[in-house]
Amino acid sequence: MIDGFLALYIFMLAAFTGYEIIARVPVILHTPLMSGSNFVHGIVVVGAMIALGHAQTPLEMTVGFIGVLLGAGNAAGGYVVTERMLEMFKSSKPDASKAASREAKR
Amino acid sequence: MIWLPSLIKACYLVAALLFILGLKRMSSPRTARGGIVWAGYGMLLAVFATFFLPDMHNLGLIIAAVVIGVGAAWWSGKRVAMTDMPQMVALYNGMGGGAAAAIGAVELIGYVRKLQATIGIPDTSPLRPEAWAIDALHPVVAVVALSPIELALGVLGALIGAVSFSGSLIAFSKLQGWLDKRFVFTGQRALNLLLLAAAIVAGVLLVSGYASFGLIAAFFVLALLFGLMMTLPIGGADMPVVISLYNAFTGLAVAFEGFVLGNETMIIAGTVVGAAGTLLTQLMAKAMNRSIGNVLFGSFGASGAEAQAIDGAQKPIDAADAAVMMAYAERVVIVPGYGMAVAQAQHKVWEFAQLLIKRGVKVKFAIHPVAGRMPGHMNVLLAEAGVPYDLIADMDEINPEFPATDVALVIGANDVVNPLAKTDPASPIYGMPILDVSNAKHVIVVKRGKGTGFAGIENALFYADNSRMLYGDGQAAAGELVSELKTLDT
Known about the structure:
heterodimer; A: disordered C terminus; B: 6-stranded parallel β-sheet; 6 strands
């Protein structure tokens, strides 16, 4: 178990980290970033695995099983859709040369 | 194997690091692709390490659940069309919330079971299966009772997770078109507040030691019901805010359950998402000039005030004239909206834009922050069609450019270009920042019919002197524009 105050410090620092990461994100990336953070909280699958791993009665096992099922769905689904969306942004990669030629035209 | 616990801890640490670095990389278009892959490795590492935790039972069940969950989500995530992304994000997010709630449920059930086994309260709950008697015969040696603060956070996380779960499922159903009616009745807000209060009372009772299986069940039913009732009255146009909010909710729920389980990675990842999601929700709400509370509990579009009557008529234009107008323009700004997504018109629109660019027209795409059903929804669709992101401008960037724009082509956008948001205080969208397309020299609006938009609000833009209406389905209209342009060239 974690000491309560230590956990509070973790909460605090992580909250600032999250805030800083997203504070200056271009609108273009809002969707991938939202679905990306959606994937990251898929870490809940680990918690559900621990809960199911310690479950002792049929009821606990059933609820834990559902938890792992949902958590795994969150992680896998979140990954796939984010990856698919970000894949598309790759296509505009040669924009450095394009931007340069546009500058030249001006 | 004295090093095993440390090794597992190290894996969790690296996973947390990869999540944060991954999210950081995702915040820039250049490195975004790598970011999700990094975070993915972090997830694999964390899941793998969890199998080696001490005292893990039910490994077969765990593996089965992981395989089924991953398989189903992977399959559905690969198949879904880009236009349907918002509801899939809502669905996966709801699953995460449900998982957090399930963790809370398992912990609470175990807590009550151990408590009753130690103190020896006979359980009268009908939920009690006979198998539990075995456990009661061997009272847990050291009752791993949760500390009050762990209990409280566990209950809070379960509440938030359950609300996020049922709420996200409703959001999913709405976006999927299974629930296209807004469900509104008088006294709704009072009922919702009552449900929330009841859920909180049940939660407080659980924490303060009146725990029983019946109470746990009641607590979850109330929490799920609240999430459901809270989301039902919210309209589709507000979904970007709602999805983003539930994303933050799930993050927080995961962080709280992480505290209960003593898992630092869950605390870090959950809190980072919670904070990021809260900020994103605020950005969305600000783009609509509404508070988050107003989105959730306000009755949008139901203000009693009479809206301004609009004089004039909508003036139609045919595709040939519209194409000529844009072909000989110097600057064209294309404003896509949700209607483009519905019509799957993004590829045709980009084809049209490319033809214009080839003729020397300066083309830009202008995107309102809440266009579509998810933050950045339009950007994703345009990227799918192959539009380079340097051609896409956001609201602050493009608004000063409209007066120098010859033609603004509005495809499937409505409320986000409605000048009434600036001029009519009685309008429900009054005060919402809009794209000032009416400042362009000419406006061409592609629209399916003469009706009002999603919010049911008349749009003054359609009646403006410099506006012309090109009626038709977005994809068909864009297709016509393309073929008209091609005949110009030959």
